[in-house]
């Protein structure tokens, strides 16, 4: 495998035509470090999509021998991986989550790290197989990637048991992807070697094993898959365990059903893994045409691959988007572009700006709460009190002072004190901004570009970004700087 600055490899697989796959440099260097320190590890399941995992598109399911746990953690920390905390319904014994970053592509690598043969089945239920030492004795090196993986007989056996565990406790049928994965594995199985492995694991073998394997390989027989899956599943004693009572399991099932049906009417809910070292509020500011909204959208998509992150919009019509749903607010009708809202704004006059600022204060307080619970908050625009009249700043500060202007400034002071952690200041010239937004007022754009550098954001770390560069370069630079500041 040849790794270059553009981590590209060409692979030839006996099960597929020649294809191309971008393996991240980070995954290659991680493998080298683990080998160098003689860590006992393997990518223990899901090896049919190992290449996608090394690209950062799916999880890396790594089994690490518990005696090497401290050394493994030292290696990933040295490589600046961040530890994640799973939500209660996804947390299982002998499991950890680490997230890494590939500097070249900006991709995240999720290490779903196991220190025993444990995998989740349903909320609170997990499968534990008592064959860890035997597993490590039955590994091979994958020719395409260089990663240690189980021999086909071991991986097929584990997959058969996992399929039945899921069928009993969660799903009623074997998914098409699992059928394809099992068929691919079984096609590589040597029957005698499979029998020897079962003897080592003290498992009985069905008398029609050869026949059932042929049915799976040649006919993709679902009954044969179910038969073998059920046969092996019922032999390990108490392999399915539960963390909680069944009451809690049922609670979480209905909890997720409620979120799917009425998620936008609920409070902000943390569904994904959170940062072990704490959350952050990250804001993007800049003139029209700087790409704030597009960057925020792509950053949220990038982070929510595994990390709990939420989108806060602080413009004229502020809102929160969480878990792909815009959250409902009882004050939304005041800030939309409907007939009632326009009439209300006309009638409310200056009071409207106080209501708008108050909404942003409440949003920011909520953002602060969720960041303290170790989630990330991405802010599209951010209120400031240095420039009056625009840039989401105070609107009522005129030469003639009034109690309204004084009250508004007090509100902005609350915003300033609540604050954020990191601000990306997207810099570009008025000419470039105007080309990107030809329908906007050029003088206003020019004024924004000139005044952007003079705005302060309290104790937040301000990072200047050249927003005139090609979009892909800007996004990659921002991903790198976010990673440095998590």
Automatic annotation (TrEMBL):
Q: Which InterPro entries match?
A: P-loop_NTPase
The protein in question is named Thymidylate kinase-like domain-containing protein
